[in-house]
Amino acid sequence: MITHQYDVVIVGAGGAGMRAALESSKEARTAVISKLYPTRSHTGAAQGGMCASLANVEEDNWEWHTFDTVKGGDYLVDQDAAEIMAKEAIDAVFDLERMGLPFNRTPEGRIDQRRFGGHTRNHGEAAVRRACYAADRTGHMILQTLYQNCVKQDVEFFNEFYVLDLITDRDLATEDVEEGAEVNATGVVAYDLATGEIHVFQAKAIVFATGGAGKIFKTTSNAHTLTGDGMALAYRRGLPLEDMEFFQFHPTGLAGLGILLSEAARGEGGILRNADGERFMERYAPTIKDLAPRDIVARSMANEVREGRGAGPNKDYVLLDLTHLEPAHIDAKLPDITEFARTYLGIEPYTEPVPVYPTAHYAMGGVPTNVAGEVLRNGHDVVKGLYAAGEVACVSVHGSNRLGTNSLLDINVFGKRSGRSAAAYAKTASFIDLPENPAAMVEAQLTELRERPDGERIADIRRALQETMDANAQVFRTGESLNQALSDIRELRKRYRGASVQDKGKMFNTDLLEAVELGFLLDIAEVTVVGALNRKESRGGHYREDYPDRDDANYMQHTMAYRRPTAAADEADGHIAGYFDHVEEFDGYKVVLGSKTVTQTRYEPMERKY
Amino acid sequence: MTAVMEKADAQPKTGEIPSFDVTIKVRRFNPEGDAAGESYWDEFHITAYGTDRVLDALHKIKWEHDGSLTFRRSCAHGVCGSDAMRINGRNRLACKTLLKDVNPGKPILVEPIKGLPVVKDLVVDMEPFFASYREIMPFLITTGNEPTKERIQSAEQRERFDDTTKCILCAACTSSCPVFWTDGQYFGPAAIVNAHRFIFDSRDEGAQQRLEILNDKEGVWRCRTTFNCTEACPRGIEVTKAIQEVKRAMITRAF
């Protein structure tokens, strides 16, 4: 075991992690621990843009952006956080430009802007040009620019290190820690993939920026490495996860593959059509049609397919039509995604429409934080020294459905805030002693996995998990389908305990890490399904066919899911009495659901129409 | 659309994707265990489908045949740059190469990229590659006060370096370069591409410094214009052209 000591440890080197590192490394001794080389992070796969009301090409302001974000999230957004994000968006874009990001330009040489789903002028009148972009590789350019600036600032990285445990001075998973009591994060335990060595990092402040968990689904735009690590680690240590039932399905995944085709395709004029060639979005969102928010477009597409109007030999997808656009325009604005269609499906988008179907894309929920990035351990108490930003976190600016481009914005605004908060805290705090053998749990877990005799393959269990999630917890959900998913997950957990890895080596053992990651996926899938079962309404990305309406009277609350020992009290910390109390018993523990109030400032919930 | 991953039935159904059998020969190397330090060919036979990529085949091997087969991968659609490897003797991204396009009638050969130390199977040590990248100062260098808003740059000025902004640092170019194979000290195409990205950016003021770095004996003059790098680039960057432009800038000091 090798030990390190840093003021600030950042876990994850995607957009949020590196944006945090650029702040904290100026003020405090900082290490970034990442399971990938930083430039491999999935921020790089984001395509379309990053919204900010620069008003470079038409009238716009941050208040409209705030409203769109709140409405887009079906009013489950914390409005104070959304307002901060929309205001700080403007500087976030200028920060990136000054760091060197090559945005596309207007004829005047300013940052160009384009339309994107759900972003409108004057509270829904018409689509507005708000997304700042670099062709259809905006995320790539953000990731590269942040990494370049980390090189410039000499940020210290531990690449291909997997963080496998979070250390706190009170064990929230097993102790009954009273409200208001002080709980400190003191370090993390990491596994060096290259050598198989365990490293313990003691830190005054820790920032989780580990990204999403799209691999709980089979059809997903997410990377193989997006296995919900940070979410699961926090959850296992007794921290709640917020709003996990809200998962975004991006409308335009390449059919059958799930590879993302940016919403920018529709922002630039692309049209969705069914098998009859009908522009069906006119029926579902008469005002902004194809540029309605993603939850609405994805559901509309799935509905077209269900009602028999799908295209293709199996009638199981719809078509993204770009054929009316000038090839030169496509090449200038959408070069990468049109190449995906050519490479993977052999389709020429100049002349043929592209088969598309919704693909699991983004977790709106995650580790709850306040607007400073501090992690909450219940409805109000923070864990001192622990921060989270980006997809792993839930602040909550996305509510029940994130608008396109707001994730790139989220990582920049709240990555920066978390980095600053962490460094400021580290300057005033002292190191807290770690337990005697901080890596004991991780070492035992890895040894057990490595030494387990021949059993079932990890990949078979993972595939079964992903298949049940696609079949039962996707765009359309019912109590019945979700119960099916939950009983499948319980069964898969049993199988997981008997599964084995084939690679018994120490060095670069990706087989072993895939097994660990499957454990994370099972936790995240379970908490997602339990939350979805409990939320007997339809809102944003969560659609219950058995409860098709939004139910503000009972469910205008964030879900807070806690994993507790079976013997613990059933009441969730900081819970609000009412429909939200729900306990799901598992083998050896239980999931307790509580709630947290939605912060409402300017906007009264209204019916959501586009 | 779930047919992609399912086993083919004897009778193809409407819309079913036809399958084919393919042999994959992988260059293996394990730093530990019984065959520690030995490099050898390992052969696998799998059933694949028309949309399957080489990465799908490697996953099928790892997940169904041999869990110890080791390679890097992440995004699986050609944007993260993790899975550059030599496929039938040419550098490509495994996730961007369809099996049907690499002559699947014969065994498909998969090897680690060349010129970087092999760590395990298809995984190489990328550190020397990233060290060269860091040396060329891959970040915007400016002087004077920061503007309060954005810097102004015309669409034409932005277009000047557009091609080299596409780089994903996969090392397909550098590890296809015969000069790099024989001289690991050479900066290699990827570092030069990333220098180009800043040298020709109208906002940048560090071009002279970067040109001095690349004027080194291990710099751009080692390039023999073999075009391997341009052919290897999975992002379609005209790598050799970018290197030529850097050479020209070094002589004319115009950029």
From TrEMBL, chain A:
Top-level class of the enzyme under EC nomenclature: oxidoreductase
Protein keywords: Electron transport, FAD, Flavoprotein, Membrane, Oxidoreductase, Transport, Tricarboxylic acid cycle
Pfam families: FAD_binding_2, Succ_DH_flav_C
Entry's localization field: Membrane
Chief localisation class: membrane
Superkingdom of origin: Bacteria
The enzyme's E.C. designation: 1.3.5.1
PANTHER family per the UniProt record, alphabetical: SUCCINATE DEHYDROGENASE 2 FLAVOPROTEIN SUBUNIT (PTHR11632), SUCCINATE DEHYDROGENASE [UBIQUINONE] FLAVOPROTEIN SUBUNIT, MITOCHONDRIAL (PTHR11632:SF51)
Stated name of the protein: Succinate dehydrogenase flavoprotein subunit
Automatic annotation (TrEMBL), chain B:
Top-level class of the enzyme under EC nomenclature: oxidoreductase
Start and end residues of each 4Fe-4S ferredoxin-type domain: 157-179
The EC number(s) this enzyme carries: 1.3.5.1
Cofactor dependency: [2Fe-2S] cluster; [4Fe-4S] cluster; [3Fe-4S] cluster
Keyword check for Metal-binding: yes
Keywords linked to the UniProt accession: 2Fe-2S, 3Fe-4S, 4Fe-4S, Iron, Iron-sulfur, Metal-binding, Oxidoreductase, Tricarboxylic acid cycle
Gene3D superfamilies linked to this entry: 3.10.20.30, Alpha-helical ferredoxin
Domain of life: Bacteria
Listed PROSITE patterns: 4FE4S_FER_1, 4FE4S_FER_2
InterPro entries: 2Fe-2S_ferredoxin-like_sf, 4Fe4S_Fe-S-bd, 4Fe4S_Fe_S_CS, Beta-grasp_dom_sf, Helical_ferredxn, SDH/FRD_Iron-Sulfur, Succ_DH/fum_Rdtase_Fe-S, Succ_DH/fum_Rdtase_N
NCBIfam families: dhsB (TIGR00384), PRK05950.1 (NF004616)
The family this protein is said to belong to: Belongs to the succinate dehydrogenase/fumarate reductase iron-sulfur protein family.
UniProt protein name: succinate dehydrogenase
